[in-house]
Specification:
- This protein is 36% helix and 29% strand.
- By secondary structure, the chain is of the alpha/beta class.
- Helix 3 packs across helix 4 (110-119).
- The protein is globular.
- The chain starts with a strand and ends with a helix.
Length: 301
């Protein structure tokens, strides 16, 4: 029997007349990095907060770490490391003082806080005020505080938003190292490159779960056909293609266009004339996660 760290069904949350999360079911296996992909405002944060006991669902049920998300919320909070979108440590305390505070809060020896500083490469910054750290180092400090009490599950809510590419890469290397040691992580993001670093993905939009699986299965099961177009006049070409029957999305990727549709015959008919008459080069391609993301956002399905 698969060991699910998170196993929730039908989660729904309303704020007044707004349905933030609608009938979301999610399973996360132990020891995996599970990506939670979706645009801003899609319901990712609300879902995470229901899973870890910070919000009570209006509907739905399930378990987190084998504990009931309604009846055992306090126990869940004690065993989950939750890293919020915003830096939530004390800006006017040093790196060392922040981790010492977390250690005291959990009744841990201060020696463990000192070890965490060295483990995450924060030694040269131990006496620096947290508020003066760059975005990447703030996130590393926040992660250190999050894992200091040795949680059984990490919930990371867009942990690298606003962080430079090298700091993002370093952060993800650390998450993979933690997963290799057996820690489970559910990570929300809207970055495609981060989604591709996860073992499994769930895609949420408009409060509803649209897709779930590993990257290869999602791409294979999407039913999307994509052509890659290069050459001159791509902006004008894109404008002429959008809205044609059989074309579901047209998106720029660097110096190329990705033209996608769900019906191969209708897509082929839609692009036949510009493909033959235009100066651009057309090549059949494999749809990417971003192609699928754009397509699903456009269709809402």
């Amino acid at each position: 029997m698969t060991d699910y760290v998170i196993d929730v069904t039908g989660l729904t949350k309303r704020f007044g007349d707004v349905v933030a999360v609608n009938d979301v079911s999610l399973r996360v296996e132990r020891g995996l990095i599970h990506g939670f992909l979706g645009p801003n405002g899609s319901g990712k944060t609300t879902t995470l907060r229901m899973i870890c006991g910070l919000l009570e669902p209006d509907a739905g049920e399930g378990t987190c770490l084998g504990l009931d998300i309604r009846r055992q919320r306090n126990e869940i909070k004690r065993r989950v490391g939750y890293m919020t979108q915003r830096f939530s440590l004390y800006a006017d305390l040093t790196v060392a003082e922040n981790l010492d505070f977390v250690a005291r809060l959990y009744g841990l020896p201060l020696k463990r806080a000192a070890e965490q500083i060295d483990k995450l490469g924060l030694g040269d910054r131990r006496d620096q005020l947290a508020g003066n750290l760059s975005g990447g180092w703030k996130q590393r400090l926040a992660l250190g505080a999050c894992i200091l009490p040795e949680p059984d599950l990490l919930l990371l809510d867009e942990p690298t938003a606003g962080v430079d590419p090298q700091a993002r890469r370093d952060f993800w290397d650390e998450i993979h190292a933690l997963a290799a040691d057996g820690l489970t992580a559910l990570v929300s993001t809207h970055y495609m490159d981060e989604a591709e670093r996860c073992h499994r993905l769930a895609f949420i939009a408009h409060g509803e779960l649209l897709l779930e699986g590993n990257t290869e299965d999602i791409v294979a099961d999407a039913g999307l056909v994509t052509w890659t177009v290069t050459g001159p006049g791509l902006n004008a070409l894109a404008a002429s293609l959008r809205g044609r029957p059989g074309i579901d999305s047209v998106a720029a990727f660097g110096n190329a266009l990705h033209v996608s549709g769900r019906d191969a015959d209708r897509l082929d008919a839609a692009i036949a004339e510009p493909r033959e008459a235009g100066p651009q080069a057309w090549q059949p391609g494999q749809p990417t996660l971003e192609d699928i993301f754009i397509d699903r956002m456009g269709s809402g399905a």
